[in-house]
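> forwarded from #structure-qc
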């Protein structure tokens, strides 16, 4: 049971050598009348009258169906060969199924899950057929008009409107099998500690066990540290010191940054009481820290200017699902080619393979979740559970540097007036901090912040003069925060909460060029020629870089996405202008971080070429 090494593991941060990819052709059926449960479709192959290509949603072209209408209940079926060897368990994994899922194997219910962007698994060993031929059936329910679901940019109207897109229903990330021993490492979290050059290792087992856990750290074939700890139960929490990181001269060679994304390999081996191996997983981490101080974002305790771009993670033929594993790597390369050092994943929990490439190629990521659009007890419960699951999934990725649970008061529309909505946003801040105290958290991106570590502001002015007036100096920013309200909303709901938060322009730009006749939406401003487009972009960036106190930005956006034709690339990932011309604008040094001049000069000297972008 193996998949070729050329296919990137669907859970690349924690891997075992053996796994089987179940993507590809599945039988499929719509269940618009919702009769399938009562009629036991899980036992009836004749109900499945179509074929779909997994993991592409049925609304998309690559699925082979391409029906964007309302179909709230979807059924999938496929057969696969599998057996469990003596002393072995077989796990069935789903990367993401939007929104509710029930899973049967050979007619036995093995899993139920709610949450459209996060993974779930089932131990299917007890349900396997002795013949070796297995049947898996999935029922996915995604109510298209339910705005209490965390749906993000997925439209609740039948046709895309304004800034919302076609839906992504059902299975949209990899389905895969993984054989494991009877006792195995079920979860592994790695938290670096830059100050003392160590890593905290938290390993959860599927059941209580008596034995040892051996941890090996290495880099480029060199062993950096090894340590064994006793296991007495189902959880191990230990710290491993890296001797090479104690050297004050050379420890920077181990640090992770976007320019030098150094990673340390980790192998965790579960040993029996007799010291024989029982299970082993491979992982990695980046030795780095993130934080805030004196109005600046800190990476490895150094002020770092955030050059970010907004990424919808949407493809024209596959929607939220990447068209291929290679496309996820390519997306990171496209971002870096323009000179950005960060990306804000917008209203989506991105595929783990994207984060893998961000870790390896050097790209900081703001982690965000799809929001709901109604506030009630059900919406609160749904968003909270899915958000905590996302943070748990991704908190060991070095690329993740900031968490964003809410965008622009979506789902908390009356937050400026209602204490319960303020309490919800604040509770998400503190819950996130409880799970991961190592990263900044933004309670409500864009405006109406309750408690936030970064004050991200959204301002789509097309004029440099407005940037200068609102953000040019510390005094101008203070006036904007407390009086000006460029969005006609209160920016800070707790203006006395002052802890040295950086101020960043985390949505701006949104410029379109050459609108087509009949387009439903162009952008926040439109250029009629290449030169006008370039000059408009340059003027906005000039305003940002001339500011003495803006700590970073996020430009809207990376690619054209459906009717939002305001990308630096078109929807097929082709640049609208020569990449070098855009890169020269984006990589200008910032007045807010004096060391930027040296950093930008160094990056330009490197002139790394990513993919085919030049």
């Amino acid at each position: 049971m193996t998949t070729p090494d050329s296919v990137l593991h669907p859970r690349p941060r924690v891997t075992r050598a053996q796994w089987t990819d179940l993507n590809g052709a599945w039988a499929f059926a719509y269940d618009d009348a919702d009769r399938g449960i009562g009629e036991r479709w899980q036992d009836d192959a004749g109900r499945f009258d179509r074929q779909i290509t997994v993991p592409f949603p049925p609304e998309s072209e690559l699925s082979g169906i391409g029906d964007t209408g309302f179909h709230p209940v979807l059924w999938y079926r496929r057969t696969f060969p599998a057996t469990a060897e003596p002393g072995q368990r077989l796990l069935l994994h789903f990367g993401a199924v939007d929104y509710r899922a029930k899973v049967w194997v050979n007619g036995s219910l093995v899993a139920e899950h709610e949450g459209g962007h996060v993974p779930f698994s089932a131990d299917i060993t007890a349900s396997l057929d002795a013949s070796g031929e297995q049947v898996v059936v999935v029922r996915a329910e995604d109510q298209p008009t339910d705005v209490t679901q965390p749906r993000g940019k997925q439209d609740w109207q039948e046709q895309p409107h304004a800034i919302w897109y076609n839906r992504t229903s059902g299975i949209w990330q990899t389905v895969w099998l993984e054989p494991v021993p009877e006792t195995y490492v079920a979860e592994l979290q790695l938290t670096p500690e830059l100050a003392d050059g160590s890593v905290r290792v938290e390993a959860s087992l599927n059941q209580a066990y008596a034995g040892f856990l051996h941890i090996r750290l290495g880099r480029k074939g060199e062993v950096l540290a090894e340590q064994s700890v006793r296991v007495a139960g189902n959880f191990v929490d230990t710290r491993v010191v890296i001797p090479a990181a104690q050297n004050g001269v050379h420890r920077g060679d181990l640090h992770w940054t976007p320019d030098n994304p150094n990673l340390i390999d980790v192998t965790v081996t579960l040993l029996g009481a007799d010291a024989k191996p029982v299970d082993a997983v491979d992982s990695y981490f980046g030795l780095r820290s993130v934080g805030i101080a004196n109005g600046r974002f800190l990476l490895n305790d150094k002020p770092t200017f955030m050059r970010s771009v907004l990424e919808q993670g949407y493809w024209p033929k596959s929607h939220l699902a990447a068209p291929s594993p290679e496309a996820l790597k390519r997306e990171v390369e496209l971002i870096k080619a323009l000179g950005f050092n960060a990306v804000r994943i917008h209203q989506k929990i991105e595929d783990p393979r994207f984060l893998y490439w961000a870790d390896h190629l050097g790209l900081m990521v703001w982690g965000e979740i799809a929001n709901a659009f109604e506030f009630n007890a059900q919406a609160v419960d749904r968003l909270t559970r899915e958000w905590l699951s996302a943070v748990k999934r991704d908190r060991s990725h070095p690329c993740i540097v900031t968490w964003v649970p809410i965008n622009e008061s979506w789902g908390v529309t009356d937050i400026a007036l209602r204490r319960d909505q303020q309490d919800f946003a604040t509770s998400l801040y503190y819950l996130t901090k409880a799970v991961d105290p190592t990263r900044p958290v933004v309670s409500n991106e864009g405006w109406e912040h309750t408690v936030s570590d970064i004050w991200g502001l959204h301002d789509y002015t097309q004029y440099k003069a407005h940037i200068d007036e609102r953000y040019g100096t510390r005094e101008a920013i203070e006036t904007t925060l407390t009086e000006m309200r460029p969005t006609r909303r209160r920016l800070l709901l707790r203006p006395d909460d002052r802890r040295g938060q950086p101020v960043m322009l985390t949505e701006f730009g949104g410029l379109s060029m050459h609108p087509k006749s009949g387009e439903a939406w162009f952008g926040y401003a439109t250029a009629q020629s290449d030169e006008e487009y370039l000059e408009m972009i340059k003027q906005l960036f000039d305003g940002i870089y001339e500011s003495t106190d803006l700590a970073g930005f996020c430009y809207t956006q990376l690619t054209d996405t459906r009717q939002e034709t305001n990308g630096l690339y078109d929807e097929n990932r082709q640049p609208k202008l020569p990449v070098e011309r855009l890169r020269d604008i984006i990589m200008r040094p910032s007045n807010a971080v004096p060391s930027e001049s040296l950093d930008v000069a160094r990056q330009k000297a490197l002139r790394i070429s990513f993919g085919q972008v030049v």
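QC bot note: The radius of gyration is 24 Å. The chain has nine helices and 29 strands.
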